[in-house]
Amino acid sequence: MTSIDVALEKCHESGKPVQVALVGAGTLGRMIALQFLTPIHGMRLSAISNRTAEKAQKAYVVGGITTALYGNKLSAIEETVSNGGYVITEDASLVCRASGIDIIIEATGTVEYGSQVVTEAIKNGKHVIVVNAELDSTLGPILKQKADLAGVVYSNTDGDEPGVAMNLVRYLKTIGYRPVAAGNLKGMIDCYRTPETQRVFAEKYNQNPKIVTSFADGTKLSMEETVLANATGFKVGKRGMHGPSCDHVKDIIKYLPPDQMLNGGLVDYALGAAPYTGAFVVVYEDHPVKQSYLSYLKMGEGPFYVFYTPYHLPHVQIVSSVARAVLANDPTVAAEGGPICEVITMAKRDLKTGDTLDGIGGFNTYGVIENSDIFVKENLLPIGISEDCKLKRDIKKDEAFSYDDVELPSGRLCDMLRIEQNEQFKFSMNNRER
Question: Is the pLDDT of residue 368 over 90?
Answer without folding.
Answer: yes
